[in-house]
Amino acid sequence: MGAESSNGTVGPRRMLALALPTLGVLIAEPLYLLFDMAVVGRLGALALAGLAVGGLLLAQASTQLTFLSYGTTARAARRHGAGDERGAVEEGVQATWLALGVGAAILVVAQCVAAPVTNAVAGGGDIAAAALDWVRIALFGVPPILVSMAGNGWLRGVQQTRRPLLYVVAGLAVSAVLCPVLVHGLLGAPRMELPGSAVANLVGQLVMAGLFLNALVRARISLRPRWSVMRAQLTLGRDLIVRSLAFQACSVSAAAVAARFGAATVAANQLVLQLWFFLALALDALAIAAQTLVGATLGAGDAAGARELARRVTLWSELFAVALAAIFAAGAGVIPHLFTADPDVLDRMRVAWWFFVALIPVAGLVFALDGVLLGAGDAAYLRNITMGSALLGYLPLTWLALVFGWGIAGIWWGMAGFMVLRAAAVAVRALSGRWARVGAEVPVGA
Description:
Elements: H1 12-41, H2 45-62, H3 67-81, H4 85-122, H5 125-138, H6 142-157, H7 162-184, H8 194-218, H9 227-259, H10 263-299, H11 303-330, H12 343-375, H13 379-404, H14 408-432
Pfam families: MatE (PF01554)
Subcellular location: Membrane
Main location: membrane
């Protein structure tokens, strides 16, 4: 067998062996982006604003296609668990063809609309001009970004999580060296200022994608495109894209409502949300490990083992989440002051803080079972419950906060409704056992 099929062989050590390198991959890019901002920030506020707008546009052009990593992991893990190593790697080949094709299409379309979209987001003027210069260059990084997503997906599926970490770190290290050199004209290089940041990003992304492509070539299997496999991947991807759009609708609504309560509410909400996103990265690392192991166990034909694995992963994630909640509860009087000294912002952060703390254990359950159900290929169910939780929980409560003047508390009541509804839905699905369908293929409409 290509993976452990017995539930007794998957313990905390095995889970951590998969989760820790995955966590490294998840946090590497956010850390580099902070470094990039520090380098560009020395050019002044205009360059930093241009980078912020440009980075937002690049993220929107690429991050909606996370199915290239999550969907590929689910499909490759099934093959790996069934002992079909060539089939597992072939999932990576076909996902890479999709990444190249979709990435090229996005590049062409995005270049055509870059100027009006940048103007609309930045409100025209000098910020839009600075952002456009950065975006024009950075958009060439979309195809290699998507290739790296696909590479992460199939390597996770075959339970090789250290190689993606090495590839990502190598690419970001190249960018980190080039960024100050090109932005500020060090070591005899031309001083490119803000466009230098985009060039450094692009070179690092090309290095990263090249390493993932080399891993496919060295696997010595056919690199011929197969539309039947790509079509199946797109079916799974469709559900994950719709799910991602539901998350985006919630984020945009929260930001829009917060803005109408003033700058202090916007700042407080953003600071607490950034902490929430940081915790999500830690919990996601466990969820991705669960996705890999559940997919492999189902591929090996062991439904009972997959259900036991789901139970144990959920328990570990919940214990971790409770510990994190205790830390942030104890730090309620200290942690917010690390980010701001503004009394109005701190006042609003205190309101959101206890929603944040209370929801961390809920997130431990939701993220763990998200990983389990993604590993089972149950993307259609996740799509439906995410949309339902957004429509019944997050969106109405958030917009009612504006109508009735509930302020930041109303926004976080929306988050609470969203998370509690999702927790109930994934728990019901997990307990039903209907997701645990065995076989090397991800069930359609699981």
